[in-house]
Amino acid sequence: MIKYDKDNQLFYLNTKSTSYVIGIFENEVLLHLYWGERLKNPLNTNIITQMKRRSFSADDYGDYSTNDFPLEYSTFGSVDMRLPAFDAVYSDGSRITKLVYAEHTITKGKPVLNGLPATYCEENDNAETLTIRLHDSLKDVDVYLSYTVFEDFNAITRSAKIVNNGERLELGTAMSACVDFFGIGASEMLHLDGHWARERHITRREIVHGNQSIESRFGASSAMHNPFMAICSKGASENHGDVYGFSLVYSGNFTAGIEVDGYNCGRAYIGINPFGFNFVLETGEEFRTPEAVLVYSGKGLGGMSGIYHKLYRTRLCRGKYRDSERFVLINNWEATYFNFSEEIIVNIAKKASEIGVDTMVLDDGWFGSRKDDKAGLGDWYENPDRLPGGLKSLAEKINALGMRFGLWFEPEMVNPDSELYRNHPDWALHTEGRASHLTRWQLTLDLSRKDVCDYIIESVCRVLSKANIEYVKWDMNRYMTEVGSAILPADRQGEVMHRYILGLYYVLETITSRFPNVLFESCSSGGGRFDPGMLYYMPQTWTSDDSDAEERLMIQYGTSMVYPYSSMGAHVSACPNHQVGRTTPFKMRCNVAMPGQFGFELDLNKCTEKELEIAKSAVKDYKELQHIFHKGSCYRLKSPFETDLSAIEFVSEDEKTAILCVDCKKATPNAAPEFIRLEGLDKEALYSLDGDVYGGDYLMNKGLLFINNSEHGSYRYIFKKC
Ligand code: DGJ
User: Fold this and answer.
1) What CATH number has the domain spanning 645-721?
2) Rounded to two decimals, what is the model's pTM?
């Protein structure tokens, strides 16, 4: 797995199918020498001697220059002029760091990253960790680079720990990973972008000289960009081409990008956004970066996604619901918004229970003085006008229908019109002298403060203890502005946004471990914080407020680049759709939601008999098939970004069943027949489909004949191995 070749000073980080090679030059400089398909033979170190210094590069190593090397963790202030992975300002005002190799250890397994979410390994996993200590002798700073190799998963994780043994320093940049692609050829950068109601659409662009990056400055990972990018060989498709995935296990401000220099070396990086980040380390203090998860696939984008899906589903998500079947929810938000009473909620639940829905979720509006979105956030006690018998009585009524009861919270926020704000105005993020701007009438609580975090823990736990609540939707509906903390000194205000995220993780760890039987789902105005950091605490995320079936085809397709369908909350809602006004057939709405964490976001009492019939059979199908959607392998066959069709296939773990989901956006008049080529089948085997029998080889080589002649046509083909 991890091999150290002492004679040549090379580290081989081998997974089943990939190798990542690091070299030590002149006992000092860490070089990035290879990342790609697994090497069977030793690396020829001549490649290092060929990397001679070029014209006008400074000669920090005689004939060689760190400016011209592919590096593992670059620093600012000396010879390397490219974007640094590490940058700090020291107490004498200087901004120069020189990190050289000091020592390394190789250990079994993977240590936990205290206070930060991260992938983990289980006892029998083939995982090893290499930790390399780099040292700056003048400033007495150590940087520990950790690499964990998940051999069977084909993934490598990276993070860095900075330990300051010298005088006070201010950390400006500390990337989680930096990979120099020496001699990068024609390549593309793929990332996931959008906004509210159209999250994680796919952007793909040619990589050119200079820096190209995505970032969040919102305080959350955001709907605008996702903490992920892939560097792909030009034209890489779903099953061909080299793809290098970078995913960050973090929920706050991040950056990811690649800077290509004049010698065609592409420096790819991912980590906390250095913009607005300034973290003071006094003598003896340390800083840990979030974890980056690196995946190489020589089999295109599909190969990369398959690795992320498996790793994130089984070695990032935790707890009781990681492997078990989840709930079929009905949520009252779009059914009632703020206009509900106990009776209305019970009536929605009653109808839902008749078709097999097992969990009723009460959304926003049950607490404090909340009649609309202008008041009440922060006051987490029931509103007796709405719920005369309180949550306990409502939960009992729902339980009496044979259903679970779930509840919405937005604990990180406060309305100025709330008891909490009147008592603790300084608990909201703010900066003295600056007007604090409201978004949706609310301010963000200062989770960099322990007392604020403890208030949230106490309030949420109190509510969860008083009624039988088995599911929580944890919402967060604004980005941060006028960021400042009342208790941090002026020179530490640059730490607030990161400390907020650390505070959030402390809150989530405490609450989720106190209530291990509760299923938690995160949400941020839909998918505004759909990231691996949140998935560590909550195994599913509300994918988007946009539940229009056509829009969801794209949102879910883009999301699946990194995240498994088991992590995507997906509900059937009413038409005309509340976000886009579009009307789609009920069947298509059910079919599109079904591969995710399936549920409803409407009042089934208002549905026709025909719709109820479809809903009932969808719930039944989902219960039978969810293990295939969630634990099987997922293949993207036709992209809704490129065609009027979306085709996704799921192959069961035992490889005996394949479900092909085909959904049409627009029909083509007098459409020509086309073939949808399946993946992941056994070419030797026969497959039956509704009485017909096809060869696996035919389905994979040629495909299933399909004619797109029906607007919003939605089809499910279930192939059974004979
Ligand atoms: C935003 C969420 O995305 C919605 O589903 C709903 O919970 C509202 N917040 C409630 O305020």
Assistant:
1) 2.60.40.1180
2) 0.98
Place of tokens 């696996």: 696
Nearest to 445 by CA among 408, 488, 491, 476: 476
Element (H, E) at 564: none
Catalytic residue chosen out of the listed positions 545, 546, 603, 663:
545
Name the CATH architecture for the domain at 2-315.
Distorted Sandwich (2.70)
Q: How far is CA 265 from CA 50, 103, 214, in A?
A: 15, 27, 19
Convert the pLDDT of each residue in 109-161 to its tens digit. Answer: 999 999 999 999 999 999 999 999 999 999 999 999 999 999 999 999 999 99
d(CA 692, CA 684): 17
Q: 270: Cβ–Cβ under 8 A, 6 or more apart, which residues?
A: 175, 176, 177, 227, 229, 246, 247, 248, 254, 255, 256, 292
Distance 334 CA to ligand 1 centre (A): 9
Nearest CA to ligand 1 atom 11: 364
**Across 265-353, where does the E strand assignment appear?**
266-272, 279-281, 286-288, 291-297, 329-331
Residue-range domain boundaries for the chain? 2-315, 645-721
CA of 682 to the centre of ligand 1 (A): 43
Would you call 185 exposed, middle or buried from its count of C-beta atoms within 10 A (0-12, 13-18, 19+)?
A: exposed
Which backbone phi and psi does 506 adopt, to 5 degrees? -65, -45
Residue 702 has what pLDDT?
Answer: 98
CA atoms within 13 A on the CB side of 716: 19
Task: Provide, rounded to the nearest whole percent, the portion of the chain with pLDDT above 90.
Answer: 99
Instruction: Name the CA dihedral angle for 159, 165, 170, 172, rounded to a multiple of 10 degrees.
Output: -20
**Which residue's CA is the nearest one to ligand 1's atom 6?**
333
Q: Of 42, 41, 20, which Cα lies nearest the Cα of 32?
A: 20
23 CB within 6 A, ligand 1: no
Instruction: Give the per-residue SS3 of 473-541.
Output: EECCCCCCCCCCCCCCCHHHHHHHHHHHHHHHHHHHHHHHHHCCCCEEEECECCECCCCHHHHHHCCEE
Phi-psi region of 699 (alpha: psi -120 to 50; beta: other; left: phi over 0): alpha
Q: Let me know if 475 is a catalytic residue.
A: yes
